[in-house]
């Protein structure tokens, strides 16, 4: 695929870091899958973690927003990771979606044109 290698790497790095950081302390898992589809490349990062209400999902992409936590003063970052990911995906004419997993965690899906 065509694009800025450093920025494309940032997409994967931020999603995997978030999947690890916002996971359950014991028995959790992170799954990373890539696939090629006609005309696009797909990256899916899924994890266990806290339950994410569907109405909160879009807010996770807003700068300085995290799920039910303080906006600053946490060891889990300041809430810029997903807003950066969304910006990079959009700059590459792609799309990103987040879907809550039943029982907790998220499935993050990035689709980028080739």
What does this structure look like?
By secondary structure, this protein is an alpha+beta fold. It contains two helices and four strands, in the order αββαββ. It has a four-stranded antiparallel sheet with strand order 1-2-4-3, with helices on one face. The N and C termini lie close together (4 Å). About 4% of the residues have low confidence. GO terms for molecular function: protein histidine kinase activity. Keywords: Kinase, Membrane, Phosphoprotein, Transferase, Transmembrane, Transmembrane helix, Two-component regulatory system. This is histidine kinase. Its EC number is 2.7.13.3.
Give the helix/strand layout.
Blueprint: H1 5-21, E1 30-37, E2 40-47, H2 81-91, E3 95-100, E4 106-113
Antiparallel strand pairs: 1-2, 2-4, 3-4
């Amino acid at each position: 695929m065509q694009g800025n290698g450093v920025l494309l790497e940032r997409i994967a790095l931020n999603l995997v870091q978030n999947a690890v950081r916002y996971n359950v302390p014991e028995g959790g898992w992170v799954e990373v899958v890539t696939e090629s589809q006609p005309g696009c490349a797909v990256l899916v990062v899924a994890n266990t973690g806290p339950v994410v209400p569907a109405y909160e999902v879009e807010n996770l992409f807003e700068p300085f927003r995290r799920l039910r936590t303080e906006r600053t003063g946490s060891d889990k970052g300041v809430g810029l990771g997903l807003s950066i990911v969304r910006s990079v995906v959009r700059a590459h004419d792609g799309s990103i979606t987040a879907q809550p997993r039943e029982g907790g965690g998220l499935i993050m899906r990035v689709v980028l044109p080739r």
